[in-house]
């Protein structure tokens, strides 16, 4: 086989992208509970603290919320913090439902001998739920940025996935929607990157690689089978 492994992105690839509209509604409710101005809280959550949350600076979701409250000069009670964490945790869990055909394709890839990996830029709330999803048992190695404290497009995160799969990067396909400069990062690390397009991937997410990508692309996750045939 030319390729021995397929490494996937998570959001916008195996599961749907996070809807900004839906996330803003949840974050607005969280802001109301914490008695923080809505826009300040949303901006701090999505933009100002994303890097440190995705790099695993906090050991719990509660610690993330407490940090944001501190940044915004707000003292929240324990029950308020627990309430908003429950809201965001439930919202996150709903996001981790696989897209149509994903389970079938991953199962088939396994059955014909391919190793499967995952690399995702995500925060602690995803790490807590991931082992209990219907996807986790199909992935041989899952690299979550908050767990390894490295984000895409850092070459080390791709190298770590390849090392854990025991596969040379040149024998790895990387499939992603183009967020986080992940495709150029994969190419720089020696993998073979492929852009996953599709109607859902045209909404909300910031996808810098997708806007300028000149490399190979597929429109459906099932098209991976064409790449390896």
UniProtKB/TrEMBL annotation:
One example GO MF annotation: metal ion binding
Q: Which cofactor does it need?
A: Mg(2+)
SUPFAM superfamilies referenced in this protein's UniProt entry, alphabetically: HAD-like (SSF56784)
The UniProt keyword set, sorted, is: Hydrolase, Magnesium, Metal-binding
Q: What PANTHER family does the annotation carry?
A: GLYCERALDEHYDE 3-PHOSPHATE PHOSPHATASE, N-ACYLNEURAMINATE-9-PHOSPHATASE
Question: Could you tell me what this protein is called?
Answer: Haloacid dehalogenase
Query: Record's superkingdom?
Result: Bacteria
The record lists the organism as Dictyobacter alpinus
């Amino acid at each position: 086989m030319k390729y021995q492994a397929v490494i996937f992105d998570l959001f916008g690839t195996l599961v749907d992208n996070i809807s900004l509209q839906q996330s803003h509604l949840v974050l607005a409710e969280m802001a109301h509970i914490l008695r923080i101005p809505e826009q300040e809280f949303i901006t701090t959550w999505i933009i100002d603290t994303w890097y440190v949350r995705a790099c695993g600076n906090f050991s719990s979701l509660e610690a993330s919320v407490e940090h944001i409250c501190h940044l915004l000069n707000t003292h929240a009670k324990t029950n308020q913090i627990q309430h908003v964490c429950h809201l965001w945790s439930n919202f996150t869990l709903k996001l981790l439902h696989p897209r149509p055909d994903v389970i079938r394709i991953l199962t088939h890839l396994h059955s014909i001998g391919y190793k499967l990996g995952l690399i995702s830029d995500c925060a602690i709330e995803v790490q807590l739920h991931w082992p209990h999803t219907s996807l986790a048992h199909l992935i041989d190695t899952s690299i979550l940025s908050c767990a390894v404290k490295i984000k895409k497009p850092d070459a080390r995160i791709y190298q770590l996935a390849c090392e854990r799969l025991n596969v040379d990067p040149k024998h790895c396909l990387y499939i992603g929607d183009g967020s986080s400069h992940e495709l150029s990062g994969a190419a720089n690390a020696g993998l073979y990157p492929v852009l996953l397009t599709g109607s859902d991937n045209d909404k909300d997410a910031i996808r810098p690689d997708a806007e300028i990508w000149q490399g190979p692309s597929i429109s459906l996750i099932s098209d991976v089978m064409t790449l390896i045939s």
